[in-house]
Amino acid sequence: MRAAVLHEIGQDKLEVFDDVEAVGFGPGRARIRVRATGLCHSDLSAMGGVLPQPAPFVPGHEGAGEIIEVGEGVSHLKPGDRVVVCWLPTCGACPACKRGQTELCLAGFMNAGTPNFKRPGGEVFGFAGTGTFAEEVVVDAGCAVPIPDDVPFDIAALIGCGVTTGLGAALNTADVEAGSSVAVIGCGGVGISAVQGARLKGAAEIVAVDPVASRRESALKFGATKAISPDELADAKQQITGGEGFDYVFEVVGRSATARTAYETTRRGGTLVIVGAGAMDDFLQLNMFELFFDEKRILPSMYGGGDVLRSYERTIALWRAGRVDLAGLITHRVPLTEINEALDQMRTGTSLRTCIEI
Fold this sequence. Notes:
By secondary structure, the chain is α/β, with parallel strands linked by helices. The protein is built from 12 helices and 19 strands.
């Protein structure tokens, strides 16, 4: 079958092969025919070594498709079922799951160290235990979440990561208060989803911050009340909040420099939400006095900070009701053979989400 492979961490191009085989099928597993997958910035981060991932590997973790076959013991799936790929499945038995913090379950991360594919040259891993830049993938059955027939594959793919992460940051983690002021730093697909989440919660002011003009224009269409470049943020803070700072600031870049800016842009007693996935050697510096004196809440948001399956259901309900725009997030479409074009679109910021059609 066909799949896109990164040979070594640090390379910036993928190579598409047609001699890749999905492996690992057996009890408790499911084989999925991937129909659509989104390109998430986390894929680029893994390729560049920011996020830990063994190589060679097939990137992609934001996908949807159809069940081809299921292994022994799998009762919630059958061939032909439409599913979204969940890269962070829950085990239901660990302390995090029992506390209701299913987004902190580590079961999915355990899959990342087991090869999902092989080629004549050897084993190939799948990013985050999945690897959706492929025609087929074999995953734990818990990674395959059934979706209704009326949800298109491209929409379902976005729900698998970016939309769930961004919406959840506003709805679950921050629980944005109606009438509040919000700033979102970084307005790709995840940031725009956070903008939509803040709008749903009734935020009065939503300022989108991004260096790319086209993304700023898009943010206004999705509910931002103002869209600015990073060098305009200090002025916006003064004009909109009287210099006090915003009630909620979402950092959706994953860098200490922008997180520090976000902290300084948050009002005393306000909430800073860390959404971007950054590197283990990139440290955010805060002094102990400001941490105590400003009483700002710093809330990391992992995969939307809530029960993943419930978040999927909620997003589908909001999409059906026309309360969130998911189709508008897809600004580009390319076939798998042109995957490197999609990478360039994300690196230059010309896309919100590129849908790779498998």
